[in-house]
Here is the input.
Amino acid sequence: MTTDISRLRQQAGKLKKRRGELEDHALRAGAMVRGSLLELMRKCGKPGCKCLRGELHGPNYYLSLPKPGKRSRMIPVPRDRVKTIRSLNARYHDFQHAMTEIRRLNEEIESLLLAVREEQLGLGKGKVELPGLPPA
Ligand SMILES: [Zn+2]
Here is the structure.
């Protein structure tokens, strides 16, 4: 019993540490840009152009912003802004990954807490004898 509980505490401690690191990381995130940075090559369609032989034009850069129920909005990104947008956008994706991981850790911590509760209810029941007390 006690070893089960200390094992559960140990597991929860590791998860809380990991969650804390992710929270600190996310809390310190700087400026960011949402969406996805796309690099597109294209054919222009002009007769005789090299692109018809496979030498495509580009790359051209776009920031794709999802719109619920609609096609994504595509914002052209000038070449001299690509590096900046790429790093601001990477920060956004890092942040989102941290959020997802934090939610998953919360679920794991919650199930460990429920397991601790079950263990402690079992111990509590062993300490008292009350008529009508349901089994642990
Ligand atoms: Zn062309």
